[in-house]
Design goal:
This protein is α/β, with parallel strands linked by helices. The chain contains ten helices and 14 strands. It has one domain: Alpha-Beta Barrel (TIM Barrel), CATH 3.20.20.70. The chain is 29% helix and 16% strand. The strands form four sheets. The protein has an eight-stranded parallel β-barrel, surrounded by four helices. The protein has a two-stranded antiparallel sheet with strand order 1-2. A two-stranded parallel ribbon has the order 6-9. The structure holds 2-Phenylacrylic acid. Its cofactor is FMN. Belongs to the NADH:flavin oxidoreductase/NADH oxidase family.
Length: 376
């Protein structure tokens, strides 16, 4: 029997109703880093996804890089998240939280005591972040602040922040966590050559550049169990001004090292995040099939989740062929709360309005129509 997107899936003991995953999506609607009642509505509306991965959620004040992004480090934020997880579970859904530290992709005005953001090396990003105070209070994108290089002695504290965030995540009802190691944020900044020019045990060789990520994975899996832990990687994305001339051997090492943890899933962004699926860094096209093969050969058993620009046909094909166990959809979930039902019926999809992606209120957040409420 062929597998389809609509078949259930056993995610390390968590029963997913289907293989359609809601990808993490930054929405900037959590003032003071606190998820709001509308956050619970938004996620509950999308609970028919086999799995929801929340928007990136800061593990600490230092991990914050965009205005009104939620956190996991205050009681009020945790109370907010408890409401979200209950609302999703009441609708029969499953939800994991994406653990985020932005590294250099931040602005001093978002950092504790207006300090510089931190990074593996003091290399500014040619990139922007979002501030509500920009654009005469309307909110907007501004250049990120130059970072300072982390001392080795500071790394255990950041690992502790990850561990703590994972523990409290389970306490407030999440089904697990996703480690955000993609898209040019702190963990990816350690991995890739253009952002990591350290001369200690955390820089230089591929093994050294992967060390911090693997220490974070070890700490989180020790704390909450590998079966509650997934990870997101983006081997060639240029997002947040990232580059590595040799992504294949780098991610070969990363993925084979991850094989020894019994993680729940590996989530791979193919190509440029939100852009070209065939984006290339280095001399040759990235071989995603080889990446997966390396992982399986090394004994890795996690579910394999793919992302970036999938439409229904491409997604069905990936699942049918065994290339992927799960497919995550981003933008389509913004504008189609009942995406699963629409794909099942072959119904028309609502196009997302990019002007309401970041910041704002219910509009463009919880007011996208369900099929049965749509005007004809
Ligand atoms: C879009 C805007 C702000 C942040 C990512 C967390 O790319 C993000 C993000 C995306 O992973």
């Amino acid at each position: 029997m062929t597998t389809t997107l609509f078949d259930s899936f056993d995610l390390a003991g968590i029963k997913l109703a289907n293989r359609i995953v809601m990808a993490p999506l930054t929405r900037n609607r959590s003032p003071h880093a606190i998820p709001q009642p509308i956050t619970a509505d938004y996620y509950a509306q999308r609970a028919s996804a086999g799995l929801i991965i929340t928007e990136g959620t800061a593990i600490s004040p230092q991990g914050q890089g965009y205005a009104d992004v939620p956190g996991l480090y205050t009681q009020a934020a945790l109370d907010g998240w408890r409401t979200v997880t209950k609302a999703v579970h009441d609708q029969g859904g499953k939800i994991v939280v994406q653990l985020w530290h932005v590294g250099r992709i931040s602005h001093s005005s978002l950092q504790p005591n207006n300090q510089q953001p931190v990074a593996p090396s003091a290399i500014p990003a040619n990139s922007k972040t979002y501030l509500t105070t920009a654009n005469e209070g309307q909110g907007g994108f501004v250049p990120t602040s130059p970072p300072r290089a982390l001392e080795v002695s500071e790394l255990p504290g950041i690992i502790d922040d990850y561990r703590h965030a994972a523990l409290v995540a389970l306490e407030v009802g999440f089904d697990g966590v996703e480690i955000h190691a993609a898209n040019g944020y702190l963990l990816d900044q350690f991995l890739r050559a253009n952002t990591n020019q350290r001369c200690d045990n955390y820089g230089g060789s591929i093994e050294n550049r992967a060390r911090f990520l693997l220490e974070v994975v070890q700490a989180i899996t020790d704390a909450i169990g590998a079966e509650r832990t997934g990870i997101r990687l983006s081997p060639v994305t240029p997002a947040c001004d990232m580059f590595d001339p040799e992504p294949q051997p780098l991610f070969k090492h990363v993925i084979s090292s991850l094989a020894k943890f019994k993680l729940s899933y590996i989530h791979i962004i193919e190509g440029a995040t939100g852009g070209a699926r065939d984006h290339q860094q280095g001399a040759t096209a990235f071989d995603y099939a080889a990446l997966k093969q390396t992982y399986r050969t090394a004994g890795g058993q996690a579910a394999w989740m793919l992302n970036n620009g999938y439409n229904f046909t491409l997604a069905q094909q990936a699942v049918r062929s065994g290339q992927a166990d799960l497919i995550s959809f981003g933008r389509l979930f913004i504008s189609n709360p009942d995406l699963v039902e629409r794909l099942r019926l072959g119904a028309l999809l609502t196009e997302p309005d990019s002007s309401t992606f970041y910041g704002g209120n219910e509009h463009g957040y919880t007011d996208y129509p369900f099929l049965n409420t749509q005007q004809t």
